[in-house]
């Protein structure tokens, strides 16, 4: 099964949404294989969002993501990368459907509550390696796995 990197951003932590967001992925059937409550430093932020370094919003994005603690996670499951993106909604909460995380919890593009790896080849692996050491990711079976998958 596939793994993806997910992070509750500083706004989500401050607004008390960590538990709700974790619950959504758990209930969906995705398996938590890593989790870390942490503060991102400037170097890590610039590396993580390197693809956006030439965009006009880059400085604000780095300031925001380093402005308070985040909850970083790795979730595993069938098509985990795409499933998490679907559950997140669109980049802009204003365009996100109700029922999605951004559509339920956000209003503003620059405060969109959650990050999840995009579906581009290699993105999830790159982000997982950036945030987690190999021994921080746990291999185990969830008791409901035979009921989740055919
Ligand atoms: P992430 O999961 O955070 O990577 O969001 P995403 O993959 O849905 O969007 P993308 O990678 O394109 O952009 C990264 C982040 O930059 C977004 O989550 C937004 O918070 C912010 N962002 C993207 N586009 C804009 C923009 O046009 N203006 C502003 N102010 N912020 C933007
Ligand atoms: Mg992105």
Automatic annotation (TrEMBL):
Chief place where the protein resides: cytoplasm
A cellular component term, taken from the record's GO annotations: cytoplasm
Cofactor(s) it depends on: Mg(2+)
Pfam families in alphabetical order: NDK (PF00334)
Gene Ontology terms describing biological process: CTP biosynthetic process; GTP biosynthetic process; UTP biosynthetic process
Catalytic activity: a ribonucleoside 5'-diphosphate + ATP = a ribonucleoside 5'-triphosphate + ADP; a 2'-deoxyribonucleoside 5'-diphosphate + ATP = a 2'-deoxyribonucleoside 5'-triphosphate + ADP
NCBIfam families xref list: PRK00668.1 (NF001908)
Protein name: Nucleoside diphosphate kinase
